[in-house]
């Protein structure tokens, strides 16, 4: 299975303007987040992961922005190639979202990240389930269509057949 699509999803999730950070580290959430985004866009997963963790440390425990940061930490670990850590981070994002009743695109991307990790580990049933959960959380038609395409490709590539009936409810 090709991995380039995941990097595209990871980079597309940087929903902040791209700019150069030529300012001193002021220790704020915004500075660490923006530095991490810039690093991730450049493919520097190590710096991104570190800066996202520093951004997370500036937020209160129940701040909804933690979902975005946890998902981005997982994405950074995918870029690094540490899928075991990525899976842990994506799971933390899903758990945080569940505990705080958050249903956002960040949750959908966390499920997609989990699906990617599961399928790389050849745990296809969990992968399909994670994609299904991502589909349920996604609001964007573009993201929903991307998930459908990934599920169909996974089902055909790994199971030799179509997606099981009822797994996707297109609307």
Which terms would index this structure?
Serine Threonine Protein Phosphatase 5, Tetratricopeptide repeat; 171 residues; mainly alpha
Tell me what you see in this structure:
The protein is an all-alpha fold. It has one domain: Tetratricopeptide repeat domain (Serine Threonine Protein Phosphatase 5, Tetratricopeptide repeat), CATH 1.25.40.10. The protein has 8 helices and no strands. Helix 4 packs antiparallel against helix 5. The longest helix has 19 residues. The two termini are 27 Å apart. About 4% of the residues have low confidence.
CATH superfamily: Tetratricopeptide repeat domain
Which CATH architecture?
Answer: Alpha Horseshoe
Q: How many alpha or pi helices?
A: 8
Please tally the β strands and state the result: 0
**Backbone shape:** globular
From the N-terminal CA to the C-terminal CA, the straight-line distance is: 27 Å
Summarize the structure.
With 171 residues, the chain is mainly α.
List the helices and strands and how they pair.
Layout: H1 4-12, H2 29-41, H3 45-57, H4 65-80, H5 83-99, H6 105-120, H7 124-137, H8 141-159
Helix pairs in contact: 2-3, 3-4, 4-5, 4-6, 5-6, 6-7, 7-8
């Amino acid at each position: 299975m090709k991995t380039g699509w995941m990097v595209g999803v990871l980079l597309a999730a940087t929903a902040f303007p791209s700019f150069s950070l030529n300012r001193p580290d002021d220790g704020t959430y915004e500075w660490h987040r923006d530095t991490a985004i810039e690093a991730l866009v450049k493919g520097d997963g190590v710096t991104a992961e570190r800066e996202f963790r520093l951004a997370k440390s500036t937020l209160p425990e129940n701040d909804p922005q933690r979902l975005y940061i946890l998902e981005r930490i997982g994405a950074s670990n995918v870029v690094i190639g540490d899928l075991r850590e990525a899976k842990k981070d994506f799971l933390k994002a899903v758990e945080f979202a569940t505990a705080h009743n958050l249903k956002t695109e960040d949750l959908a991307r966390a499920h997609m990240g989990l699906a990617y990790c599961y399928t790389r580990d050849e745990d296809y049933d969990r992968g399909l389930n994670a994609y299904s959960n991502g589909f349920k959380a996604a609001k964007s038609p573009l993201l929903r269509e991307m998930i459908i395409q990934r599920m169909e490709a996974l089902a055909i590539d790994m199971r030799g057949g179509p997606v099981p009936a009822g797994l996707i409810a297109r609307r």
